[in-house]
Amino acid sequence: MSAIARVMLEMGYTVTGSDVAAQELTEKLIAKGAKVYIGHTAEQVKGADLVVYSTALASDNVEWVEAERLNIPVLHRSQMLARLLNERKGVAVAGAHGKTTTSSMIALIMEDCGVDPTYIIGGEIMNVGTNAKAGQGEYVVAEADESDGSFLQYHPWLAIVTNIEADHLENYGGDFGKLKAAYVQFMNQLRDDGTAIVCADDETASSLLSEVKGNIITYGIDSPDADYTATDIMLGDRQVSYTMNHQGQVLGKIELSIPGKYNLYNSMAAVIACLKSGVAFEAIAGAIVKFHGAKRRFQVLGEVNDILVIDDYAHHPTEIQATISAAKATGKKIIAVFQPQRYTRTFFLLDAFSRAFSEADEVIITDIYSPAGEKQIEGVTSARLVELIVQNSNSSARHLPTKEAVLADLQGRIAPGDLVLTMGAGDIWKVGYTLAEGLREHKAKE
After folding, report:
1. How far apart are the C-alpha atoms of 273 and 175, rounded to whole Å?
2. Mapping DSSP to helix (H, G, I), strand (E, B) and coil, where does residue 341 land?
3. Which has the closest alpha carbon to 230: 241, 239, 215?
4. Which of 181, 283, 340, 393 has the maximal Cβ count within 10 Å?
5. In sequence order, what are the residues at sequence separation of 6 or more whose Cβ sits closer than 8 angstroms to the Cβ of residue 51?
6. Which residues belong to the active site?
7. Helical (H) or strand (E) element with 85
8. CB–CB of 320/356 below 8 Å?
9. Are 370 and 344 in contact (CB under 8 A)?
C-alpha cells in the first residue's frame, strides 16, 4: 500500500490514507506530501476520487462503507497496481519465495543502468532506502502476490515464477491443485509479446510449463536443459559468485554481495529479466554486485565484538531452511529465533516447520503471531511445534512466549562467535533491532 501511495504521489496525485499506527513508511509518505491519518473514520474518505484498500481491511470498515455510500469507486490494492502495471511493460515477479528480493534486484539494476523504471515492491531496497518510485521509462516492476489470488489481475510483459509451494492454502480451499491452476492462469495472461521466466529446478513450477501457451525461458543450477544455467558456483560469507551461461555459451561472471543459494536463483531471474529489457550483461553484472538486499531479507542489523545479528522475513519452512543455511556460511554459532505467523499456516505446515531447523545450533520459538480476527485452531500452538522440532530436527528447541522473554534470554548470554537470526513475518524483528542497538551502546561505553 505504501509503495502504491508513493508512486501516485510522484505521479502528481493528491494522496491521503489511514493506518492503525504511525511507522517509518507513513513518516516517509508524509515527507513526500501525503496526508496520513492514524485510525479509521468515515470523514477521512470524503473528497476522494478513488479509495484503495488492502486485503487486511474488513469490508465493514467505516471508510470502505462510507466510500460506497458516497459512490466513490473502491479498488483492491492489486487492482490499483494492475492499472499501473498493465499500462506499460509490466515485469511481475511471482513465487512462494524470493519475490521481494528478485523484484528489488531488477529495479536496482534497471535504475543503475539508466532504464528509469517504475517499481512497486513489498520491501524497502536497502541501497535506495525506498520501496517504490514513479519512473519515466517503459517498465513497471512489481511483486505479483499469489497469497490471495490477486496476481490474476495482471497482464505482464514478463511473468517470473521463482518457485511454487503449498502456502496460503486457506485462500484456495485447502487445495494445492487450485493454487497451481492459478499460477498457470497467471502465466497464460501474458501480453502477446510477453515471456514467462521460470525456475526449471523447481519441480512444481516446471511441471506446469506444458500448460503455458506463450514464450517460456527457463533457468536453473541442476537442470542442464534449462535455457540459462549457473556454473563455477561459490557460496561464501555474505557473498555468492557464479558463471552465467545461455544455451551452453558463457555470458560471464556474476558476483553478489548477499549470501545463499536461494539468492543465486533470485539473481538469475533478475539477470534474465534485465537482459530481456535490453540491458547488456556487463552492465547488469556491474550493477547487481552493488545490491545489498531488501529490508528484512537477511538484513544485518549489527555486528559488534564478533556477535552478528541478522533479521529475515522467513516465515515458511523452505525459507527458514535456506536462511539458516546461508547463515552457516559465516562459520558462527547459529541461534535461530522464529515467530510463527498465522494459525492456519502453522496448521497446514506443522510437520514441515518441525523439520526446518536441523542446521541451527539453538532454536527459540515464540508464541504464534496472529492477525486480528483470526481464530485459534485447537492443538496448534508454539509449545506443540517445539515438541515436534525436538523430535524431528533439533533437540535444542525451546519455547519462549514473548519477545521480552527472548530478548532477556539473549542479552544475558550471547557471546563472541554467536549469530542471532530472527525470523518471521510478524514483529520479531524488534528483538533483533533492540539486541543490536544494545550491543552498539555497550561497545560505545567500553
Report:
1. 31
2. strand
3. 241
4. 340
5. 45, 63, 64, 67, 72, 73, 74, 75
6. 99-100, 143
7. helix 77-87
8. yes
9. no
The cell for 373 is: 480476527
Please give the grid coordinates belonging to residue 77: 490494492
- C-beta of residue 91 within 8 angstroms of C-beta of residue 141: yes
Residue type, 184: V
Copy the grid coordinates of residue 67.
Answer: 466510500
Q: Which strands form 89-94's sheet, in the order they lie side by side?
A: 130-133, 118-125, 139-143, 89-94, 158-161, 195-199, 215-220, 228-236, 239-246, 249-256
